[in-house]
Amino acid sequence: MNKEIPCYVISDLLPLYQDDILSEQTKKDIDRHLSGCEECRKKLLAMKMQIDVQSTDVELKSNPLKKVKFYQKMLTAFGAVIAFVLGACAPIAILGLMVLERGEIAVYQIERVKSLWYILALWCCVAGIALCVIYFLLLLLIRKIIGKK
């Protein structure tokens, strides 16, 4: 054992030595200590083996962000579906508000809605698609703002 630096100090410095973030003089002192101390060499070797095992485990794992990206895409799709449904419900809600405003619905209005149902359905689809487009534009704007920071 080298008497210049105690083994407990070398043990504390070994992780820094292994990561190569010590000054040149400190590295030389540790090298000098390791050349004469079998116990500290064993500790350094054990640390190197432990890091090799950990790095192998990390390499075997798949991309950790893959799952996050999948959930992000699913939430985006779910948001688009909700936007479409809300947009499609808007024309029906407007029609309902007009009926509530008048207090009743006349027979001719019912017949008119029955004969022009495809226009109401088209209006609902267009409103749903428009709200989806707004939703995606907002998402793009938010990503652009986040990307700048």
In one word, what is the shape? Answer: rod-shaped
Largest sheet: none
Q: What is the string of SSEs from the N terminus onward?
A: HHHHHH
Helix content: over 70%
Task: Please describe what this structure looks like.
- This protein has 149 residues and is mainly alpha-helical.
- The chain has 2 domains: 7-60; 65-148, no CATH class.
- It has helices spanning 7-18, 24-36, 38-60, 65-102, 107-115, 117-148.
- Helix 1 (7-18) runs parallel beside helix 3 and helix 4 (65-102) crosses helix 6 (117-148).
- The longest helix is centred in the middle third of the chain and has 38 residues, at 65-102.
- The two termini are 53 Å apart.
Topology:
Layout: H1 7-18, H2 24-36, H3 38-60, H4 65-102, H5 107-115, H6 117-148
Helix pairs in contact: 1-3, 2-3, 4-6
Keywords:
149 residues; mainly alpha; rod-shaped
Quick overview:
This protein has 149 residues and is mostly helical. 85% of the residues lie in helices and 0% in strands.
